[in-house]
Design a protein that fits this description.
With 325 residues, the chain is an alpha+beta fold. The chain has helices spanning 2-16, 47-57, 61-70, 75-97, 126-129, 132-150, 166-170, 182-193, 249-263, 296-300, 319-324, and strands at residues 104-112, 115-123, 160-164, 173-175, 178-181, 198-206, 211-218, 221-222, 230-232, 234-242, 287-288, 291-295, 305-314. The chain is elongated and about 75 Å long.
Length: 325
């Protein structure tokens, strides 16, 4: 409890200054042991072709040379061959690393129009979670979840919220510009980074007019290639109902998200509930994180919005409890 209290104080100070079953995988033959096709002349496998293929794919000089030799110097076929062999190697390594604990990772938050998603992807070490390739995997999972949500044909009269577990996430398509599912991208990332990883979970929210989704990510860093994606260790979405779009609504939503991250409520509660102490689990009855002299309900009421729901993700939560059991 002292750690949680310390975290809340640091969060308040910062704000004030501004399950699814395992995949059974069969290990294929590693790609470096496959027999290449007939060797080409040095002119066909020129340095220029090699450099072009290496820049485009990021694979090693040796593997790019082997790909060009195998595919008769055809650049497009060589690129496809490289991806297929990397996929096989990724699945092989995933099979070997399966079962190793994944308590680190990142939360990813992505908003587009009236749709917002939170995803969690786990790895073994914090070092790998700071690797660009891992962050790109989180980006792919967030995009896949966003596209899945946007493709749902629902007529919204009120907000809509849903969750995806690990196996459901794994089967989502990567997107319109790539083939395969998210589990294929997971295998590729495992093959490249050499750690076990899991697509833990995702949540999505869609809102019609008259609703607003506030969001907050603690320890936030923005994705280098997708400016709407925010990465961190904690994330929260807060769904509010409002009669009109008010000035400062984004800042209000961020403060509500900070409260959810720091105070970890279990339910929204009601404005009629009695004020509670630090152990209170109803959001509106909790002491407001940034001003504990009032409840969150007392902070929200004059703002002209109603808090109706929330989602909170903490990276790695559940892993320590499972380990203790």
């Amino acid at each position: 409890m002292s750690l949680l209290r310390s975290f809340r104080f640091s969060l308040a100070a910062r704000a004030g200054s501004c399950p699814a079953g395992p995949l059974l995988l069969q290990a294929p033959q590693p790609w470096h042991t496959l027999r290449p096709g007939p060797r080409l002349s040095s002119s066909a496998c020129s340095k220029e072709l090699l450099m072009k293929l290496r820049r485009k794919t990021g694979y090693s000089f040796v593997n790019c040379k082997k790909a060009l030799e195998t595919c008769g110097g055809d650049l497009k076929q060589a690129e496809s061959w490289l991806h297929k062999q990397a996929q096989k190697e990724g699945w092989s390594r995933a099979a070997k690393l399966h079962g190793r604990k994944t308590k680190e990772g990142l939360i990813g938050l992505l908003q587009d129009g009236n749709t917002t998603v939170l995803v969690e992807v786990n790895c073994e070490t914090d070092f790998v979670s700071r690797n660009l390739k891992f962050q790109q995997l989180v980006q792919q999972v967030a995009l896949g979840t966003l596209l899945h949500c946007q493709n749902l044909k629902d007529q919204l009269s009120t907000y809509s919220k849903g969750f995806l577990n690990s196996s459901e996430l794994s089967e989502l398509p990567v997107g319109p510009e790539r083939e395969g599912c998210l589990k294929d991208q997971l295998a590729l990332a495992i093959g490249k980074l050499g750690e076990n990883m899991t697509l833990k979970r995702a949540a999505w929210v869609k809102v019609p007019a008259g609703f607003y989704v506030g969001s907050y990510v603690h320890g936030a860093m923005h994705s280098p290639s997708l400016h709407n994606l925010v990465l961190g260790k904690y994330g929260a979405l807060v769904i509010c109902e409002t009669s009109e779009r008010k000035a400062g609504l984004e800042d209000l939503g961020r403060r509500l998200g900070q409260h959810v991250v720091g105070m970890a409520p279990l339910s929204v509660g009601s404005l009629d509930d009695e004020p509670g102490g630090e152990a209170e689990t109803k959001m509106l009855s909790q002491p407001y994180l940034l001003d504990p002299s009032i409840t969150l309900g007392q902070y929200v009421q004059p703002q002209g919005v109603s808090v109706v729901d929330f989602v909170r993700f903490e990276c790695g939560e559940g892993e320590e409890a499972a380990e203790a059991e």
